[in-house]
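Case study B.
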Amino acid sequence: MTKDEVAKVALLARLRLNDDDKGRYAQQLTSILDFIAQLGELDTEGVEPLAHGVDRTNVFREDKARPALDREDALANAPRRSAEGFLVPAVLD
Amino acid sequence: MQLTEMKAAELVAGIAARKFSAVEVAQAFLNRTEKLKHLNVYVHLEPEVVLDQAKAVDKRIAAGENPGPLAGLPVAIKDLLCVKGEPTTCGSRMLKNFRPPYDATVIEKLKSAGAVLYGKANMDEFAMGSSTENSCYGPTLNPWDTKRIPGGSSGGSAAAVAAMTAPVSLGSDTGGSIRQPAALCGVVGLKPTYGRVSRYGLIAFASSLDQIGPFTWDVPDMALIMEAISGGDSRDATCVPDPVPNYLAEIEKKPEKLRIGIVREFFGEGLDPEVEKSVRDAIALYEKLGAEIKEVSLPHSKYGIAAYYIVAPAECSSNLARYDGTLFGHRSADYSPANDDEKKLPALVRMMMASRAEGFGAEVKRRIMLGTYALSAGYADQYYNKALKVRRLIRNDFETAFKEVDVLIGPTTPTPAFALGEKSADPLAMYLSDIYTITTNLAGLPGLSMPCGLSSGGLPIGLQLVGPALSEAKLLQVARMFERETPWHTKRPNLTV
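Model:
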């Protein structure tokens, strides 16, 4: 992985990195990906992917409104808030 | 015998019989915890909050009520289980000020069983690590040798029990995070079948792998806690609704016929000779006790770490996307552009990038990036889908093995506890310490680690038992067979208080 690729992934992952970080992660992620490359040795043609260890089918419940968190409880941990909502930097100019 | 030396079952019985009070028990553990502060086991512990719960239990007992099967029992909690209104930080700067608005299901269950919620135990940040060195609160020290790591990510929960600062604790296991620290701290640790215990209120790392489980001194205590925390939950759709067995009754039964499989791949290169000897001795004991021993093969297990380090980071990158400085968690005070590239980004994006950069530690960032990369356009098939196919092959190996044997046996870890700092500079070396535990998470199976020896340096060695899905009762039964014949679960670290 190059430093440029790390920068691209960091932006996708919303992580600010400085130049030193990028160099270090490029090297570490490369060695991890090299290790992972051994998966390529295996022929997995026709193998069904397994997303969960325990096979489950859909679990349904009645489509009925139930009490949810109070607004005050939901807002209690907000880094910035108004009386009734979360505040973030302006999205549109 | 001092209260802090007692097992959970003895404490619960003594409190119920009013031989001693819940307050006396809580106070004994608080006193000992205070003297062992240097181990850095707890990241939040409010003596008043602990004592208030104990007082309430004593009051109910005095009034003739039955407060439940865990009445007055202190339970240390890994700091990723939500406790309403109490700090729940995941060992991360990101959640330093977070106080959950609700209880995790296991916390509700503990409360309704009469347990006393003890301190929040230290952990690797967001449960990512094998040494508890990735905590923003600094590492927990191994009670058997304070120059060594306790294992991780549930290192605080394992050390809490090993140092007798709590009689039992809860942790979570995504790739070995209960079994590995249990092995390195000389206690019993169980990772239940995926879905046996509700994950509601467990702060998610990798949702298809995470599972909550207890740490105890012995198998009867494990059975006691498992009965209290297991069972279906409408708030966790992956939770298994099957009825919970009476584990306490099951463990005293002796299996009529027992076939134990030695996993050939778990005795290869990298296995410490002392660990191997202890595990071989344990196998010989089982044979003496009448078990049929067979060698079995899990041919794809050598790909376990590689598959895991795609699946877990992929899920982590998605789960941890919620920490963006918006709804809860850390928000950066200064997100003005750090360079020319950032000038092109909207303020909202810069706020998220700066908040996440400040809030997360190095390992969490590494895994988020690895997962983001593995799921990104053009790579998802090569990495993520490939890993899921290998995951199927790994589970098929187990299914084949369980046609021939009832449980699998092997070491929990390749070596006893390693030194603080020994593997922190090399992420891959750290990942490899989970080589024997990681495949059971990929396959969703239950795995138990129990003490089976001490190294010449006096460090605990762990024996791992793995069974088919929902075979916890059998695993505990088989573990109990060993425990009845050996002294290892009675060994305690030599701590001066």
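The mean pLDDT of chain B is 97. The remaining cases will be described in the next quarterly update.
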